[in-house]
């Protein structure tokens, strides 16, 4: 049968505002998490990562928060710019000797000038 | 430092044909993983190679195979192509196994007609 495309949640923000993108992960044993940004026609670009022994990590204009109790990740982007417009994916690594990543469905961030 | 290089960038193949995609990881990276990205299924793990050995395999039919060479370059092969194999195939490289940043290439866009 015909496959139905994934419905991407969309977050629309004004330029200069802060953005918060949320993600629920699936495996309580996952011990490493990454946020990726994917622009149209390009591969996913690494943004920031966090290990399960941390609950917060900051980068340049970005912060990742990890709540293991409810298996929730969030990505905060400060002073959002038009160049931040893209699809954002969270990914979890399930532990053990593997780099296998399990990706979320993604969130489309649309920045309005 | 060069990033992950995937060739070719675009391919059009006919049903029933086979195809080989190539990935050159970042210099010094020993782990290569492959993912399939489609609008219907999102990003799905295909397989992972480390030191020429397949470490992990996703839930794909046997028509999908891969290998890694001694210089860490990797190829994946899809035989007896089906229309549903049309996708963006992405390669990611990591310096080591587990808990290390995974960097993606631009992908190979495969269209099966």
Description:
- The complex is a heterodimer of chains A (about 110) and B (about 110).
- With about 110 residues, chain A is mainly β.
- The radius of gyration of chain A is 14 Å and the shape is globular.
- In chain A, about 0% of the residues lie in helices and about 50% in strands.
- In chain A, strand 3 (about 30-40) and strand 4 (about 45-50) form a beta hairpin.
- In chain A, strands 1, 3, 4, 8, 9 and 10 form a 6-stranded mixed β-sheet that branches. Chain A has a 4-stranded antiparallel β-sheet with strand order 2-7-6-5, with no helix packed on it.
- Chain A has strands spanning about 10-15, 20-25, 30-40, 45-50, 55-60, 60-65, 70-75, 85-95, 100-105, 105-110.
- Chain B has about 110 residues and is mainly β.
- Chain B is about 0% helix and about 55% strand.
- Chain B is built from no helices and 11 strands.
- In chain B, the strands form 2 sheets. In chain B, strands 2, 4, 5, 6, 9, 10 and 11 form a 7-stranded mixed β-sheet that branches. In chain B, strands 1-3-8-7 form a 4-stranded antiparallel β-sheet, with no helix packed on it.
- Chain B is globular.
- The mean pLDDT of chain B is about 95.
- Classes of the chains: A mainly beta (about 110), B mainly beta (about 110).
- Chains A and B meet through strand 3, strand 4, strand 8 and strand 9 of A and strand 4, strand 5, strand 9 and strand 10 of B.
């Amino acid at each position: 049968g015909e496959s139905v495309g994934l419905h991407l949640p969309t977050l629309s923000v004004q330029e200069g505002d802060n953005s918060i993108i949320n993600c629920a992960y699936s495996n309580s044993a996952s011990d490493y998490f990454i946020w990726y940004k994917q622009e149209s026609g390009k591969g996913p670009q690494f943004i920031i990562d966090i290990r399960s022994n941390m609950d917060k990590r900051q980068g340049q204009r970005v912060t990742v928060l990890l709540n293991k109790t409810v298996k929730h990740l969030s990505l905060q982007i400060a002073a959002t710019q038009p160049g931040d417009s893209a699809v954002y994916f969270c990914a979890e690594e399930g532990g053990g000797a593997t780099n296998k990543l399990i990706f979320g469905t993604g969130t489309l961030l649309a920045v309005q000038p | 430092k060069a990033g992950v290089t995937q060739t070719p960038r675009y391919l059009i193949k006919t049903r029933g044909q086979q195809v080989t995609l190539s990935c050159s990881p970042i210099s010094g990276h020993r782990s290569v993983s492959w993912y399939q990205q489609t609008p219907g299924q999102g990003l799905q793990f295909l397989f992972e190679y480390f030191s020429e050995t397949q470490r992990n395999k996703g839930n794909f039919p046997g028509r999908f195979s891969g290998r890694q060479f001694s210089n860490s370059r990797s190829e994946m092969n899809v035989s007896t192509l089906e229309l549903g194999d049309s996708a963006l195939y992405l390669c990611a490289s990591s310096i080591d196994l587990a808990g290390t940043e995974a960097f993606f290439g631009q992908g190979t866009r495969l269209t099966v007609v």
